[in-house]
Amino acid sequence: RPFVDLVATSINHKLDLYCPPLMDSHAWKIDALAHPWDGLVAYAYPPTSLLRLVLNKVKLEKVEIFLIAPNWPHFEWFADLINLLVDFPREIPPWQNLLKQPCKNLFHQKPESLKLHVWKLSGDPSKREDFLIGLPRGSRILTESQPLICTKRSGNASLIGVSQGRLIHAIPLFPN
After folding, report:
1. Which of 45, 60, 71, 151 has the greatest count of CB atoms below 10 A from its CB?
2. 145 pLDDT band (50/70/90 cuts)?
3. Which spans in the chain are helix H?
4. DSSP characters for 40-82?
């Protein structure tokens, strides 16, 4: 279970402990990227512009994080996202009331365009290897540098990437 919401404010935090970017007397710490994450089990839904920084921090530190991020395979940070996985990504349903502006009654008009997933990531290489070891091997044609389009296979999972030659499938956050 996550201990702290790393990228949140007093009006949108999902956990009691949170780290806003600016001064807040109720915050656990200010500016999570400026502090060590070693040993934390954390949650974060950062702006897309911060994903590269968050992934770099996860790679460098022994943190376990539940990250809300889009399934956008053509972005430069996506390969790192896949390679830091320690569990199957969970596809978040694109409900019309999924994302709301704080303090306003405005909802995201196209939540399906975000293709949001919950990604359980770790900076601990042994945890990543433990996850990958049981996954099926991919074709020799597929490579780490080749992004995959999210394609549905028969059933409720979708192929979203390859890590160390292993196929990574997403599963629904709420199975039928």
Report:
1. 71
2. very low
3. 51-60, 78-83, 125-133
4. -EEEE---GGGHHHHHHHHHHS--EEEEEEE--TTSTTHHHHH
Both tokens assigned to 140 = 């020799």
Whether 42 and 66 have beta carbons less than 8 Å apart is answered as: yes
Q: Is the pLDDT of residue 125 over 90?
A: yes
Given 3-state DSSP classes, what are the helix, strand and coil percentages for the chain, each rounded to the nearest 5?
A: 20, 25, 55
**Which pTM does this prediction carry?**
0.82
What is the residue type of 71? N
Tokens of 71: 């399934």
Residue 155 backbone zone (phi > 0: left; psi -120 to 50: alpha; other: beta): left
pLDDT: is 32 or 111 the higher one?
32
- CA–CA distance, 82 with 49 (Å, rounded to integer): 18
* Best CA proximity match to 122, nearest among 4, 50, 42, 68: 42
d(CA 65, CA 54): 10
Distance CA 64, CA 112 (A): 27
> What local confidence, expressed as pLDDT, does residue 176 receive?
67
- Kindly report the backbone phi and psi dihedral angles of residue 56, in degrees, each rounded to the nearest multiple of 5, phi listed first: -60, -40
* pLDDT at 139 exceeding the cut of 70: no
What is the chain's alpha carbon radius of gyration, rounded to the nearest angstrom?
A: 17
